[in-house]
Amino acid sequence: MLATDPSIVLVKEERKELLLKQINLHTRVYLGDLATTLNVSEDTIRRDINELADEGKVIKIRGGAMSKAYHHSSSLQETYGHQNKRVIAEKCLPLLHDGMLILIGGGTTIRELIKLIPTELRATFVTVNPLTAVELMDKPNLEIIMVGGQISRYSQMSVGGEVYQRLSEFRADLCIIGTNAIDAHGGLTDSDWETVQAKKAMIQASANVAVLAISEKLNSVMRMKIADLRQIDYLITELPADAPQLIPYQTGDVQLR
Questions:
Q1: Distance between the two ends of the chain, CA-based, in angstroms?
Q2: Mind listing the pLDDT tens digit for each residue in 150-161?
């Protein structure tokens, strides 16, 4: 999350701008995390979120807020960092090959990737994200498996023990996921328990793991751990692989793209 100096008291409009950036950057954020980041009360954050929602800039969800761009009715052009996410999607595309079994997550960068998948690709995609499954249906030669269950309004994915058990039964060639936070020492993290459990199951069921993340998410840490960096095979950002910001991530077998 964005670090701020606790001695600085932000005026309301400045605070709302920072809130909007955090929500757009991380897709979904809990009120408590936002309150900690900005050093104000949850009641203050709740009022700000209500105003941002009334202005049509974010979507209120239970316990937090969601980026408007993540809603099913949004266009990709509304996405925060749209051009950077397009670059990431283009870099990920060469990892996809005919005959593969691919576990794929959700999020705005994943949506960019799906848009670029060539219509002639023949592969099987497995997902717990309903929106991802619907968007994959536009590709005529893909087999799509939706692992269903209770849908979390926060993570917008199927959750629960049965879902995680079913994921463990796959032996995928590749897992493609986004992340809310990534750090060279802390690995992949998130603030939502259900999201963490689903991504853990996806990673464990895959021979290779590709993480898609815009560079603004580098060096950020949330409350719950998904995986160590050593469990990742590809880290794909919009930056050149030799960019100074990526030096701490040049470790183990992680391939930077």
A1: 24
A2: 888 777 889 999
